[in-house]
Each structure stands twice: as structure tokens, then as C-alpha cells.
Design brief:
It is built from 5 helices and no strands. The protein has 148 residues and is an all-alpha fold. α1 runs antiparallel to α2 and α2 packs antiparallel against α3. It starts with 15 loop residues before the first helix and ends with a helix.
Length: 148
């Protein structure tokens, strides 16, 4: 099956663990595309549940990094995340009520994620990278246990 979207190096924030998490979200979007093409509603439901859980975990991880590094816009960034999750939840609810939201959701995710990474996430990357460079060994061990 053709992928709906391919990871693009322009989406890199220069923090390997964050880039890997963003790539995993792109994988979920492609999994959603496959399930949609197969017209497999159970698979769509499973992918949506996985996508939502993974996104929440990623957001929490990212927010902790921003707070730990003293990033001044971390509260604003967290509000953007919360707004996105609320929108995602609405679409998941529509899906659960029998509406086909897959194409709308894939497009929305692609546009939102691209804009969010290239603007909001790249904005925090330098301050987080600075903090990580001071705690690199501990961070890598911890991150690799949590996100494989």
C-alpha cells in the first residue's frame, strides 16, 4: 500500500528521541490510511486508540522536557497540545458513532503536525538540546527504556 505521508527531514527538531516519536506518529497516520483503504472499521478503531495513547504520552514527555529546561512558552505549548487532543477526541467520538472520519483525520493530522513541529516544536528545541547536553547519559538511558 502507498503511504499517505512520508517523514521528511525538514520535520526534524534535532532531538533524536523527539524526532523518533514524531516519526512514530507519522507511522500511525499511515496505519490509519491502510485501515481506511481496507475498509476495516475495527482496525481503524484500534489505530485511533493507539494514536491517541501515543500522542498523549508524547505530549507529556515533550512538556516535561520543556518544563525541565525552563522553556518560557511551555504553558502556551501545553495549551496547544490540550486543544489538539480535544479535537482528536471529537473525531474519535464521531468515528465511534459510525461516521467515516479517516480522510479528514489524516489530512488534519498531517497539516497540524507539520505546522506544530516546524513552528512550536522547533522553537523549544535549542533550549531543550542545551539542557539535554548537560544530562545526556541519564536522559538517553531513560528515554530508550520508555520509547523504543
Amino acid at each position: 500500500t502507498m503511504n499517505f505521508w512520508s517523514w521528511d527531514p525538514s520535520l526534524s527538531v534535532g532531538i533524536e528521541i523527539i524526532d523518533r516519536q514524531h516519526q512514530r506518529i507519522v507511522d500511525y497516520i499511515n496505519d490509519l490510511h491502510s485501515a481506511h483503504l481496507e475498509k476495516d472499521q475495527d482496525k481503524v478503531s484500534a489505530v485511533l486508540a493507539g494514536l491517541r495513547d501515543y500522542t498523549l504520552t508524547h505530549f507529556t514527555f515533550e512538556e516535561d522536557l520543556m518544563e525541565s529546561s525552563g522553556y518560557p512558552l511551555s504553558e502556551t505549548h501545553k495549551m496547544v497540545h490540550n486543544s489538539f487532543v480535544a479535537h482528536l477526541d471529537k473525531l474519535v467520538e464521531q468515528h465511534e458513532n459510525g461516521k467515516d472520519v479517516s480522510r479528514k483525520l489524516m489530512s488534519m493530522l498531517q497539516v497540524w503536525l507539520t505546522n506544530h513541529i516546524k513552528n512550536d516544536d522547533k522553537d523549544y528545541s535549542s533550549i531543550v538540546k542545551e539542557m539535554l547536553s548537560q544530562h545526556e547519559g541519564w536522559f538517553k538511558r531513560t528515554a530508550n527504556r520508555l520509547f523504543r
